[in-house]
Specification:
The structure is a homodimer. By secondary structure, the first copy, chain A, is of the alpha/beta class. Chain A has 13 helices and 12 strands. The structure holds a DNA duplex.
DNA sequence: TTGAAAGCGCTAACAT
DNA sequence: ATGTTAGCGCTTTCAA
């Protein structure tokens, strides 16, 4: 049909015909079928984004970044929420492949995602890893400096005088959790502090994980209890504070708490939360740009890895309050 | 091909052949083309969800609810973020129609979305409105009781002794903003309090909107300043508190603040926020169920509207603190 | 139990 | 400047 030419502005259409066609389109409410187009061309101008938890503001910001870049370049975004489950993730990837997305952006649920992603790589669809790097997976990667960020947080506490510092961490199958633990340990070592197994609690990356982990720490004999807690992500930080509040401990007077990832809505009104904030939106925009370059660019290039530096935000104006008090120690 | 029969389990395939086919599928990493299938059948088992702000936890919960129901029923969700822009919304709807989604779930950006949605209705794609009802749009609708919720919040403040109560509201083009204002006015009238134009500030449904609105209220001559503020959504509540903090006013001692929508992460650690919480997840699951019923069900039925009741959560244990102090009044 | 034909809506390539 | 042909991958229908 000539209609196709009109829609795709392929020039060489008489002005009169064009007008008639456009009128007909408007009258009939005609919308071209992207499926047929995709079938023909083998590309759909659609990219998939799979995050491990849509309800986490960190990933939400990533979604916004991705969407922005995609929209600006005429791509549609399909969103999947793996909910930290490798199985759900696998299902989504399959569905999206079946829908012939041009490429994928994935925040992998865990290291166990590797086999799925290797399969993906074998099928030749371009994809970019976000927030969580997987060794041996040959793909562009956009992550934060988890080791450095955790080190910074821990150093901050040490410099304020803390010595018994706990780590409330996510599942060690998640790369960021491993890295943050490493950073924490590095800082301790740097200051000659012996790490204590009882002060490192592993849990889920969820609020109730942090809540339970903190309770476990509070159940320690008084002399072994920490005076400060590093929470490995925003949810864990909030869960930790909840447990402290329930135990009638004040932050930061009775227990200092710092965490990875900012919690915008919370920290705007709760000024006691020193954090290491990641430029979440940039994770999304950069990853999306990488993907689009691969989709539009012609020659294949070796995979790139970008490590975005986090930023320490010290929220308590009275840093002194963080110094462990003797009676707090004794509790 | 016989392959089709194997994939769709259409029986009548020799066991031996089936095995061979399945092996080939595994070896080749074959993934059936959903585009071709969709083209043929006219349905894609895909539904679209358009929210007005992905970074709002309220909508995030809705996303989760929708995704759950969809996934359980073998549907894929495509997400769009209209960012409170009618134009973006229109573009998304067009794209999704072009991609032949089976149906749509839409939290309309504003009343101005009506024309777009009327067009949608004319094309005959089923859709469900979420959170924001539009008069004259003939579709299933799942909303909260904005009038009642705002009334409850305002009554709460009045019963605590407040008389000069301000409303920090969203744009009046958004149905929820209009309804919340109505509820606020109803409560005032009920107690014989004259509404003051200067105490009703309209803004965006964003944090900086709340921030500026609160600043405007604080700039009033002392005698006209409110002693309490009703914020029309979570973001406005946070922005309001930010402005108060900056002005060195304590919540709730110097100024009581209540808001529509809970802020889970924040209220878990900031105990001063009395809110009216909506069952956001249920908005999503119910809306998705409505849509799927229309997609799978045969006979057309008249559109339904569900109004979910919000729940008052009083967070300040010492309600007395909310009573306006004389010196606070004078400030 | 398996195969062949036809068509879903679109557009690249080739007429006219 | 416009029309025709063919084929993208699938499944429904009919035939073998």
């Amino acid at each position: 049909m000539t209609v196709s030419r009109v829609i795709n502005k392929h020039a060489r259409v008489a002005e009169a015909t064009r007008q008639r066609v456009e009128q007909a389109i408007a009258e009939l409410g005609y919308v071209p079928n992207a499926l047929a187009r995709g079938l023909l061309h083998g590309r759909t101008r659609t990219i998939a984004l799979i995050v491990s938890d849509v309800s986490n503001p960190f990933f939400t910001q990533i979604v916004r970044g991705v969407e922005d870049v995609a929209q600006r370049n005429g791509y549609t975004v399909i969103l999947g929420n793996s909910d930290e489950s490798v199985e759900k993730e696998r299902r989504y990837i399959h569905t999206f492949l079946s829908n012939r997305v041009d490429g994928l952006l994935i925040a992998p649920a865990s290291s166990a995602s590797r086999s799925t992603l290797e399969l993906l790589a074998r099928r030749g669809r371009p994809f970019v890893l976000i927030d969580r790097a997987l060794e041996g997976v040959n793909a562009d990667t956009v992550i934060g400096d988890s080791v450095g960020g955790a080190r910074t947080l821990t150093q901050h506490l040490i410099r304020l005088g803390h010595r018994r510092i706990a780590l409330v961490n996510g599942p060690l199958e998640v790369p960021t959790a491993r890295d943050r633990q490493r950073g924490y340990l590095e800082a301790l070592r740097e200051y000659g502090i012996d790490p204590q197994a009882s002060l490192i609690v592993t849990s889920t990356y969820k609020r109730d994980g942090g809540y339970r982990a903190a309770q476990q720490l509070l159940a320690l004999p008084p002399a072994q209890r920490p005076t400060a807690i590093v929470a490995s992500n925003n949810f864990l930080g909030v869960g930790t504070i909840e447990a402290l509040r329930e135990a009638a401990l004040a932050v930061p007077q009775d227990m200092a708490v710092v965490c990875f990832d900012d919690i915008e809505l919370a920290s705007a009104i709760y000024p006691f939360l020193t954090v290491v904030a990641q430029p979440a939106r940039a994770f999304g925009t950069i990853a999306a740009q990488f993907l689009l370059e691969r989709l539009e660019g012609s020659e294949p290039s070796p995979p790139r890895t970008v490590v975005l530096p986090p930023e320490l935000i010290v929220r308590v104006s009275c840093g002194a309050a963080l110094k462990p008090r003797v009676d707090a120690d004794r509790r």
